[in-house]
User: What shape does this take?
Amino acid sequence: MPRPLARVLALLELLQSGGVRTVGELAGRLEVDERTVRRYVGHLLDLDVPVESVRGRYGGYRLAPGYRMPPLMLTEEEALAVLLGLVAGRRTGLATATAAASETAAAKIRRVLPERTRLRLDSLLGSLAFTAPAGEAAAPDATVLLSVADAVGHHRPVAVRYTSGAGRSSERTLHPHGLVVHSGKLYVTATEPATGEERTFRLDRMSGARVLQGSFTPPAGPPGPAQRLLTGFATAPYRHEVSLRIQGTAERIRTRLPPGVAVVTELPLGDGADAAAEGWCRAELRVERLDWLPGVLAGLDLPFVVERPDALRGLVEDLARRLGESARREP
Assistant: This one.
């Protein structure tokens, strides 16, 4: 391919990635001067590619909104990345409610690939095995997802109809902060302006999302949306409030009590404490049932103190007794 033509196509690829690209940025990426960039833009205009010139301090060039690009030519590695992404999205439950979209997208990509590449990718995809079952969670509607993402990106309120886990529907206006993927589900962290409360909502339970006029200022600084989501899970109003002191690093404790389950904070060392001794952390969590916690604490293999509830101490003692009986049982 002649070098100028290759650079014109490279310019088109840069513009296709979205947003406004300054002349200086394009010149640096293409390794040409700014005058040559303008000439390449002229070549694209001659090919009826609608490149718009944006004036101002942050001006440059961009593709006209809504312009549909011709089919892309993908390398074998790029095609593999896209197809694996589609497969992973379906397996983890992150596809949109129009599940057929991922199937048709994969079919379109396979249809335009060279036969040799297509056969090799089919062979790879056909030989893949998964250790976990496919995600079964309901997927969000594509229109809802895009509307909420637009509201997050532009700090605009959004109106939605939300159905709770108990099946109750309500109309809500939200100030959405961010989108988070957790355990195969999509969530949005948001503030309800009517109450000022920060909440977390599942996108697959939303319908009829509408971006509203106006704007809001999102919470500044840490914690970010992901940490807000995990902390919300760990402090949800379940039946039991559990508080533990555990001797060990927060990093090790989180291997068994991850952020979505417990809030783990390091405790200051007491006066006269041995500097070489490992410090203590407090783990706080809310759970509906206590019966799974003794096994988790045993798996940590660290000294711990049950601060509350008293019922947990009895369950730990019961587990210790059963383990002792099993260890003494003759083969």
